[in-house]
Write a structure and sequence with these properties.
The complex is a heterodimer of chains A (278) and B (262). Chain A has 278 residues and is an all-alpha fold. Helices cover 75% and strands 0% of the residues of chain A. Chain A has one domain: MetI-like (MetI-like fold, Orthogonal Bundle). Chain A contains 10 helices and no strands. Chain B is mostly helical and 262 residues long. Chain B starts with 5 loop residues before the first helix and ends with a helix. The model of chain B has no long low-confidence stretch (mean pLDDT 84). Chain B has 11 helices and no strands. Chain B has one domain: Orthogonal Bundle (MetI-like fold). The chains are: A mainly alpha (278), B mainly alpha (262). Chains A and B meet through helix 1, helix 2, helix 3, helix 5 and helix 6 of A and helix 1, helix 3, helix 4, helix 5 and helix 6 of B.
Chain lengths: 278, 262
Amino acid sequence: MTPPGVPGAPLRDPAWPRRCAVLAVAAVLLWPLCVATEFAPWRLLEPRSLAASLRFLASFLPPALAPDFLARVALGAWRTIAIATCGTVLALALAIPLALGATAALSISSIGGRMAVVPAAVRQCLRAAMVALRTIPELVWALLLVRVVGLGPTAGVLAIGLTYGGMLGKVYAEILESVDPQPARALLMNGSGRLHAFLHGLLPEATPELTSYTVYRWECAIRSSVVLGFVGAGGLGQEMDNSVRMLAGDEIATMLLVFVALVAGADLLSAWLRRLQQ
Amino acid sequence: MTPPRWPLRMAGIGALMLVAASFWTLDLKLGDLLAPSSLAAMGRFAAEFFPPDLSPAFVARLSRGAIETLAMSVLGTLLAVALASLLCLPAARGAGGDRAAGPIAVRLLCNLLRSIPELVWASLLLVAAGLGPMSGTLALALHTTGVFGRLFAEAIENAPPGPAQALRVQGTRESLVLLYATLPQVAPQLLSYILYRWENNIRAAAILGVVGAGGLGQMLAFHLGLFQMGRAAGVIGAMVVLVYGVDLASYAARRTLVRSRD
């Protein structure tokens, strides 16, 4: 490092060669990535595809505002919210028992020191079940469920319920393990059941975090339920998929605006709820 | 002083009403699902997935699909980093927290990019970029740019201003202040954001193909469409392995990051 203020001293970055080398290596590594993804942005600028894109974009304006179309979009938007809400409720029904079973904070056998073998194994199995539920993306669940229960919101609700059940369960278990374990432990040591220890020892302290995470997940579920519509689970996504297939830009524009408003609304609502709790 | 409890109660009642209205209007036939006949149908459906197709030829195709998915997620994330680096500077508010029009407009753009999911972007980009992984990569890049633009701008705003000020009073150019004072301070945080989003993007990349944007998702939609359940099971297995592997890699990278900082 050149001492500051020395007149005439060269202003040179001592790490310059290393930085250049890192950038060069990165550029070389980028090449196979571009090959694997057939990445050729200049293809977008070919006259034919450029003309198609511009025509598509031009059809976005003005957005479609016909009353019967707006009524369809409103129904789709409500169904999207409803699918997300029902999915989250189903996820809760799945996550609460899983989290209560998996959290080590409610272990009776670990009071005396280490957890016994059987309860530890049960907890590991529950954890593995939650991992399995959430590693399969909700869209894959929906693709499969559409074949079992048919097209419609049921597949979407089940898909969100299964994936989010795994996610919520994992995070709930972690939250329960992160709060002060003493109250619950005191209750367990005095012979109260696990449910009582949870309700009176863990829940009071964990409630704000648990609800704010749940509300956050509901917000994510709204985004997911739009996406699930693309595989036939109903709601705004399905309407959007139809319009994209018909290249009806004006309808797409309206639906995108409604969707952005929906997401922003859910965002504001959950921010307000979080503030409320503090 | 405890805050008033009525807003919380109202929120609770509102949530219950929302849940009731949702179940009432959707008319879900969840009860029918538990009927013996539909349970049997589900069992038969699940049984068709076994055994998963793991013949060498198919595994080779699976690994090509997995590499394509992985490349989509990496390139999409990197493109987003590049685009967001351009956007985050005008989006970051100055030291005084001024409310200039520029930052607000750029933030609005970021919010717009971010609130449209990857899959919706992909289905729109198919018109411009055609079927294939490039649409998927661009879709990931656009959505992630919105996410990064905001996160990067916030990180720059919250960086301690001391080092930057020290260079500025010496008359250093603004571009060099950014490179040598602000960036080194926020780099670890940005890196952990990038890793976190990469984990997200590998999940997204795995499913984008369902609308025709390449990768494992396209294989899944193809084989499910042909009712080749064994092969579909193979694809799902590859997705799970890929997602889990990226999670592990990102976790390891973050651990080293935290250690190197201590």
